[in-house]
Structures are given as C-alpha cells and as structure tokens.
Amino acid sequence: MAEKPIRFGIIGCADIARKLSRAITLAPNAELSAVASRSLDKASAFAKANNFPPSAKIYGSYEDLLDDPEIDAVYVPLPTSLHVRWACLVAQKKKHILLEKPVGLNVTELDKIVEACEANGVQIMDGTMWVHNPRTHKMKEFLNDKERFGELKNFANLRFWLGIGHRPREKSKNWMHSCFTFAADEDFLKNDIRVKSDLDALGALGDAGWYGIRSILWAVDYELPKTVTALPGAVLNEAGVILSCGAALHWEDGKVATFHCSFLAHLTMDITAIGTAGTLHLNDFIIPFGEKEASFTTVSKSGFTDLVTGWVPVPSQHTVTTDLPQEACMVSEFARLVGNIKATGAKPDPKWPSISRKTQLILDAVTTSIAQGSKPVEI
Amino acid sequence: MAEKPIRFGIIGCADIARKLSRAITLAPNAELSAVASRSLDKASAFAKANNFPPSAKIYGSYEDLLDDPEIDAVYVPLPTSLHVRWACLVAQKKKHILLEKPVGLNVTELDKIVEACEANGVQIMDGTMWVHNPRTHKMKEFLNDKERFGELKNFANLRFWLGIGHRPREKSKNWMHSCFTFAADEDFLKNDIRVKSDLDALGALGDAGWYGIRSILWAVDYELPKTVTALPGAVLNEAGVILSCGAALHWEDGKVATFHCSFLAHLTMDITAIGTAGTLHLNDFIIPFGEKEASFTTVSKSGFTDLVTGWVPVPSQHTVTTDLPQEACMVSEFARLVGNIKATGAKPDPKWPSISRKTQLILDAVTTSIAQGSKPVEI
C-alpha cells in the first residue's frame, strides 16, 4: 500500500532540530512540511540553512503551525519546561508528536501529555535515536540469547545485604553499567538551556542520564527496578541544576545496574552488560562513531588458558551497516506508525509512551534520591 | 654489576603457584630453588609438573623450606586466613616475601606482616601482576598527561549533594569505573577456598574486587578516597562470604569511582577512566587477552560532527608488546629489589607494602559498608 509521506512540522529552531530536519528529509516516508519559530526571520533562515523544500511553510508562531491542517506530525525540540504546554496543544490539534527528551520535568508532566495524546488518538514517541539503530536490534538479539548471554535467573537475594532477605540459592546474576559524559565548555556551563533551572531543569540527568537509564531499561526488557539509589558525589550548579550524577538500580531478582552522567568529563558513552554466559561492550551507544556502520563487542563462555595467561575465546567485534542514519530510522518508524493510524484507523502504539514514562520515572527517583542524600527510592 | 639470581621458594602448591613457577623460571634474575607442601609427595609432583630444575629442593613442610639458608625469597600462595601466620614467619626467617592477594583478612593483619618485614629488613610485595605489565606504564603515561587526559582539578563539591558543602566553581571532574567478574561453576561455589569463611573469607571482594580497588588507586596515584559506600545488591553465600558486590569511592576534590566484582557473572575485566580531556578504556586489564601484546584504547578532546552524527576524533588503539609475561615482569621487579638489598644493603622499597595497605584499607571499608547496609564509611 503506497502511502503519502507523513508531513512534519517543527516548532522551535533548536540546534538538535537541524539534525532532525535532515533525518526527516532522509526518511523515505516523511517530508519536511513546515517550521515555526517565535520569529518569522529565524524560521525562514532555519528552513534555508536546513534544505527545506520550496513547498515548506514558514510560520512566525507555533500556534499557526499547529493550526495548519496539512501537517500530520510535529517534532518538538523545545526546552523541557515548555513540553507539557506545547505537547498537549499539539495533541489537541490532532497532530502526532515526536518529543525531544527528557519528555518532561517529571512523570506528572508526561502523564498530562500522554493523556492528551490518548484523548486525541495521536502517537507520541520520544526522540531517543539510538534505540532505532539497526545495531541496537542486533545487540538485543545477543542479550536475549540464553546461550551467548545467559539467563536472568531469579534469586531473591536483593535484601540480603541489608540482612533481612533470603540467602541466594542460585548462582546467576546480571550486571550492567552505562555512562554518558561530555565536557561542556565555559559558555555551555554558563549559558546553555541545559544548565538553567527554568528551562532544561534536569540538567545532565535529563540530557545525558536519560540515555543511560534508557539503555538499562532496554537491556532488561523495560522491567522497572525495585529501588534507585543515587551514587555519592553528585554535582549541582548555583541554580541547583545537576551537572554530574549517577545511580545504582536494583531489581528484586538480583539484577544490578549503575549509570553515570556528566557535563564535566570527557565524551564517553559506554554500555557494559554482563550476563551469566556472556558480556557485551560498546563505547558509542548514543552517537555511533560514524553514520554508516556501528560496532559492538561480545564474548561468551570465555575462560582462561591453562596457566591463566590469556583468554579463550577472546571477544569478537560485530559491525552493523545501515543505509539510513539512526535518527532517520527513528523518524521512519514514527512515520510508519502515524501512517498506519491514518490509513487504517489503528490505535497509537502504547509501547513508546510506556518506555518514555519508565525512563522518566527512574529520572524522578534519581532526583529524589539525590535530594535525600542518596537514600534508596522505591519505584 | 652481574648478580646471582634470587633463589625462590614456594610454600603451598596452589593452582596459582603453577603460573608463578613459570614466571620465576622466565624472569632472568630469579630461579626456582625449592617448593614445600605439607605432603612431600605433593611437593615432588608439583616440582615435576612445573619444570623445576633438578637442583630444586623439595620439602614436606613449610618450616623446613623457611629454614633453608639458600632461599632468598618466598612466594606465599596460601589461603588468606593463613597469611598473617606464615608471612610473619617468612619475615622472621629473613626471607623476602611475594605474597598472594588479598594480603590479609583485614588491614590489622597486614600491619602485623609489614611490621615483621620492617623489623627483619625484608622486602614485601603483593602478587598483583597487571601493574607490572608494560601496558600499565603506557596507560599511566596517558592518565598523567594533562593534554590528553586532563587535569584533576580540585573543587570542594563532594558534600554538596548532601546539602552541606560548597557549590562547585570549577568544571572538571574525573570519573572511573572498574569491574572484574567471572562466572564460577557449581563446584567452585561449593568447594573453592574463595567461598569458605575459614580460608579466603573475603570471597569475591578479596579475589576479584582487589583488582578493581587497586586499579582505581593506581589511576589516582594511590590517593585514598574520603569515603567508601557499598552499592546495593551485594550477594553473600550461606557462610557469609561475599559472592558479588560493588562500591562507590569518592574524594573530597570531587573524583568519583565505582567498581563491581562478582563470582556470578561472565568473565569481564574493564577499566574506564574519564578525565576532563580524554577517556581510557580496556577490557582485559587483569589478564590480557594474550601474553605477548596487550592493548588499550584512548580518545582525547573528542567531539561531534556538525550535525552530531559521528565523533571527531574517534578512539585509537594502542598495543604494547612485551618479551616477558606480566607475572614474570612482577617476579623480575621483586627480584631486582631483593637483589639491591642483598648487594648494597639498601632498604626495602616501602612503596609496595604501602599500596598493598591502601588496597586492603578500601577492602575493609567495603565490608564494613556492606555490613552497615551501604552506609558511607570514612577512610
């Protein structure tokens, strides 16, 4: 069934919208139809700089774009503090929403947005690109493979370290670590919206920690942990915005995961996932080193040589090529869902708001735990 | 000054002693002179199986070996619970000590051993092999390079997250993560000395966590952290021996490090060290994948392409070759120090007991924090 491409409008000319404009152009089932800024000149310059087609409409207000009946979906790259207001309005205008992350300042805000989407029958998806990379699907195949990665056996040992639980009877245990850091410059740390308490108030946790949290949830099939405990050493700026922090997540069946996020350390984006039978590593999970191919490393059932002087087997690298960059894969998947809804009256896919919500829920727990001096927060 | 090789005796035929026997054979300034077991047959079989020279002496008791005036140094691979007794006796017999890790059940035990060594003028070094790999020296050059890795600037922000400290004024922050896990089989988890409360009572923390702790101290030039906080989710066996745990270390100047160790997850041995200007990664820090060469990855001052679709620069891999395997480098360095003492009456090098002690101190703090339900423990 050949369908018309989904017509995208963009409200706000954030830097990230440049990348998304190209992604919409590249996605075969999407087209760049309009851009709005509070300034018509700015919108016009943005459209020109980002190769919008001549047919694209330029708006000097977000409302005008939302009133355009020829727009199917809206990409919202506005500061987090504006999400609840504008995303709800997008939904009320019956337009599908591709919403930049973090989706809200807290889960209550997201719930309002999701409620508006459900009431209006529109799809919502957050702008987490890496989960759409074909590499990510290949990595998940590894994590789901009991032979190569191992099992997530239950053993109710979680509270044993507190002295109030059962002693473990089974031997398996999964562990995962994720981090995303980058070294922001003086200008960023002074002026960027991500260090402002009235804009992207979740700071490094919302901007960088979002990915670590998402990667952990992704690895465990989005099973929520039982508790979230902030790690010591969180750094906040004068306005109380998080510049660096981390947390440990743990599940009742014994799984443990930690993540670290920071604006204050060199660019690093790692996943290490350890099962009972195998280990997965990669160091570019959010933005692959290059667009056209991306790699990860796995090793299964490895042990040592007789005298413990080497590994058998050693890890092997897997490279996955992609025609479309991951952000265009994201746009394409989102447009596919929107196309289905338009063509068949299908219901929006609840998976996407559900995983946004779980990510935000953990984010909220981390901020609570930091505020409470690293007390464990129950989910 | 050509000197005679240092004559090594080994007390106990532990599995690890096979590796060390070969290392002593390979080290040009060391020779295998004797082995002792509580059983003469066992010692004899060990010597035969491990290519001891015909001149090597076989003893049916540890004491007899220690009384041999033709032994300069003794390698002690006995279970941790026996260290304080035997290492003190080795020192009293004026023999230098290469002591398997963990060095003691706690720092008090180590202090007794070190005291005995000092009183008798003998060198002590623990059996941590990886720090002697030429790769490790190359990695340290990277970590010490302000251009490539960045600075460890002070900013007294540590307690800010508790709401009682200063707000940070400087932007740098170092972060590090290390882990060592391996999936022990049923037999190990039932019978190995490392799961027995009367033998290697520190379990996975002593056997695997030792390395993570050492790697963190190594990276920060052995500066002790201010606090150590166990991560949630430690697993203990029926006898109370740790099978899996982790901790977060933090320093008053804002550095943070975490480590994880386990007998319950697939073989993994990572270091990730993140400075303000660069990142170091390796996945085989304790036992390199192969003997003859070992690699690590670094990337400095990396950022993104214009549209944030790739990295510039991407990480690069560094490979360091070595003629001697790392355990032979360790033996050789230890024998060099012993040779110096013998030839010139030099004092034993205090660096080695000092870094053993710091490692043990953190180990003790982790066990205390676990026992106290993850309360931060001051060092």
Automatic annotation (TrEMBL), chains A, B:
GO terms for molecular function: nucleotide binding. Coiled coil: none annotated. It comes from the Eukaryota. Residues 6-125 form the Gfo/Idh/MocA-like oxidoreductase N-terminal domain. InterPro entries: Gfo/Idh/MocA-like_OxRdtase_N, GFO_IDH_MocA-like_dom. Residues 176-280 form the GFO/IDH/MocA-like oxidoreductase domain. Signal peptide: none annotated. Transmembrane segments: none annotated. Pfam families: GFO_IDH_MocA, GFO_IDH_MocA_C3. Belongs to the Gfo/Idh/MocA family. PANTHER family: GFO_IDH_MOCA-LIKE OXIDOREDUCTASE N-TERMINAL DOMAIN-CONTAINING PROTEIN, PTHR46368. This is Gfo/Idh/MocA-like oxidoreductase N-terminal domain-containing protein. It comes from Populus tomentosa.
